[in-house]
Specification:
128 residues; globular; alpha+beta
Length: 128
């Protein structure tokens, strides 16, 4: 991680991310199963608050209750029957002398780790 990256207030996943842990994750599940798993992951009232869910748009907005106070948007799209991609976008308005990017990255990495326990992980960063 570069010095300037540490101070970014935004972290997101993508197909071709340079960080292997931040590549789009694919799961053998339909959108309903994905939504249920996301709700289980973010149902920790001390760490997170699910602010809104849009099944139609395949999005969930989550507010963190821990420092740095930030927002996570989970976006999921079914690319094939029983193959769904999940991306995360984490951001905060807070600034820190030591940088907030590592904390935002940790939220995403931990969310993927929890999803991997609940769903069948197919792979990351595929070009579907």
């Amino acid at each position: 991680m570069g010095v300037l990256t540490r101070y970014q207030q935004h972290c997101e996943t993508s197909e071709n991310h340079s960080d292997e842990l931040l590549k789009t994750h694919y799961y053998k599940a339909n959108s309903e199963q994905i939504l249920n798993a996301l709700e289980e992951v973010f149902n920790n009232k001390q760490k997170f608050s699910i602010t809104s869910i849009s099944k139609e748009h395949g999005e969930m907005l989550v507010e963190t209750r821990t420092s740095p106070l930030s927002y996570l948007v989970a976006t999921f799209i079914t690319v094939r029957p029983f193959e769904t991609a999940i991306d995360f976008n984490a951001s905060t308005e807070k600034w820190s002398l030591i940088g907030v990017y590592p904390a935002l990255r940790t939220y995403i990495v931990q969310a993927y780790e929890e999803l991997n326990k609940k769903l069948t992980f197919i792979g990351a960063g595929k070009n579907s």
